[in-house]
Amino acid sequence: MAAAIAWLRGRAWGPARRCGLAGGRSYSGGGAYPSVSLTCPLPGVPKAVFAAAEGRERFETRVTVLENGLRVASQNKFGQFCTVGLLVNSGSRHEAKYLSGISHFLEKLAFSSTAQFGSKDEILLTLEKHGGICDCQASRDTIMYAVSAEARGLDTVVNLLADVALRPRLSDEEIEMTRAAVRFELEDLNMRPDPEPLLTEMIHAAAYRDNTVGLNRFCPVENTDKIGRDVLHSYLRNYYTPDRMVLAGVGIKHEQLVECARKHLLGVEPAWGSGQARDVDRSVAQYTGGIVKVEKDMSDVSLGPTPIPELTHIMIGLESCSFLEEDFIPFAVLNMMMGGGGSFSAGGPGKGMFTRLYLNVLNRHHWMYNATSYHHSYEDTGLLCIHASADPKQVREMVEIITREFILMAGAVGEVELERAKTQLKSMLMMNLESRPVIFEDVGRQVLATNTRKLPHELCALISQVKSADIKRVVTKMLHKKPAVAALGDLTDLPTYEHIQAALSSRDGRLPRVYRLFR
After folding, report:
1. What percent of the chain has pLDDT over 90?
2. For all residues of the chain together, what is the average pLDDT?
3. DSSP character string of 371-430
4. 3-state SS class at 464
5. Based on the number of CB atoms within 10 Å of its own CB, is 88 exposed (0-12), middle (13-18) or buried (19 or more)?
6. Alpha carbon of 230 to those of 102, 234, 361, 457: distances in Å?
7. Exposed, middle or buried, 157 (CB in 10 Å: 0-12/13-18/19+)?
8. Residue 344 burial (C-beta neighbours within 10 Å; 0-12, 13-18, 19+)
9. How far is Cα of residue 205 from the mean position of the Cα atoms in its chain?
10. In this model, does residue 35 exceed pLDDT 70?
11. Sign of the alpha-carbon torsion through 296, 300, 301, 307
């Protein structure tokens, strides 16, 4: 053993010297190097055992369907912590027959008192014993209850999730506090310097007028006093059924998760009773196109020593495709190729400085403050948008620049440009999937929509197969649709919807000329 320690303190020698002497070299203290080399086992040291993934099963997402229709999905990941959550196929898109804003209320009411836990504090103290944190997020098509905690506390975590989702108390006090929280969030939404959340709501309302994903994700102010326990129970009875749920976990053994699911989620009587769901909305999204305008004074959104100048914000979108279609990957590459961001972004290629909206828009037009591409995708539709902002006096010119970029998407795509976008997309995908909570959400959402999961290397292979012809094909198809337009701020110089539609139907993306006798 002493020889091994002495060897570790010394330097490695050349590979040509096998298990013979070290050529007479010695330590500064005068002692000779031991006669061992890196290619031979160290004397007195046990043979090293290396961790290895034994076949594909270590990487695959395992899915089990319980007797009541609940799906249990897990993904292996080394570490002492796990992320476990319950995803429900429910959201603002299912509220057509109900008061708008129920999902927003449920998000704020999550992890409050339940049949087993007397208060939110009791829940947090229970999680604290296992180093845990909790969160709930409601989107247009999914409500997600998630907990990250030590893997040893899995049984406690699943029990808590089952109680929070299926047996909430919904006391009068909690509902009143939620009303106050919702009102505050709505006020904050209208006062923020960043209008992106508001514009996202507006573009969805314009693209899918009064149906499915076009319904408001936030509770309207007039509905805050109308939503109570009876309304919530009526909604939960229809949408919080086991066949619309997935229990997903990352960092735990699949057998343990299935065992906990059987114990806490099989044969449970929900707080609203166990009657059959009778009024489930299975509507398919109907893309309508259109415009939503909000005239608003944006001159004082951010006062102070360095105030943000008054800006007008425009978002133009066209229907793309659902994430279940093959064209979803080309659209994802296209979105990455367009890229963009704010005019004050800094950095190299990794920050998107080579994307089209930087090269063609922000680098050429100094007066534009923002030009960013977004891609929203759902199980039955999708929306590719460009958000731009500039001084109110230059709104017309800004709109024309954006419509021109939409037309140029259908033109030639350079090989270098395409490869850069594909590499950047793969890089972003792999980087995001380093995070355990992100893996959890990916597993849950994919299994909820398709009952299976595409693995990262499969997605990377699909990205690599995208050709410039695929980009041209999906863009040509997209440009045949009516546009959706959202406009916020001083809209005096905003072109008409018909002119924007004409520009997107033209060869060069230019707006029709307007002649005025007086300005």
Report:
1. 78
2. 89
3. EEEEEEE-SS-EEEEEEEEE-GGGHHHHHHHHHHHHHHTTS---HHHHHHHHHHHHHHHH
4. helix
5. buried
6. 11, 6, 52, 47
7. buried
8. exposed
9. 20
10. no
11. positive
Residue 57 has pLDDT above 80, yes or no: no
Q: Which two tokens stand for residue 22?
A: 């070290």
410-438 pLDDT, tens digit each: 999 999 999 999 999 999 999 999 999 99
Across 208-234, average pLDDT: 96
User: 397 or 44, which is more confident?
Assistant: 397
What one-character-per-residue DSSP string does 277-325 give?
P-----PPP----EEEEEE---TTSS-SSSPPPP-EEEEEEEE---TTS
Q: Side chain identity at 55, as an amino acid letter? A: G
Q: Are 310 and 237 in contact (CB under 8 A)?
A: no
User: Could you tell me the end-to-end alpha-carbon distance of the chain, in angstroms, rounded to an integer?
Assistant: 92
Q: Is the pLDDT of residue 130 over 50?
A: yes
pTM value surpassing 0.85: yes
Position 285 pLDDT exceeds 50: yes
Closest CA to 488 of 396, 392, 406, 405: 392
Cα–Cα dist 5/1, whole Å: 6
Which residue bears the tokens 């053994």?
Answer: 253
Strands (E), 151-199: none
Distance CA(85)–CA(157), nearest Å, equals: 9
In the structure encoding, which two tokens stand for residue 329, read together? Answer: 């990957």
Q: What is the DSSP string of 9-37?
A: HS----TT--SS--TT-B-TTSPBPPS--
Phi, psi of 353 (to 5 degrees): -75, -5
- Containing H/E element for 83? strand 81-88
Q: Is the pLDDT of residue 322 over 50?
A: yes
pLDDT at 205 over 80: yes
Q: Which of 507, 508, 500 is nearest to 482 (CA)?
A: 500
Q: Is the dihedral of CA 48, 51, 53, 55 positive or negative?
A: positive
Amino acid at 13: W
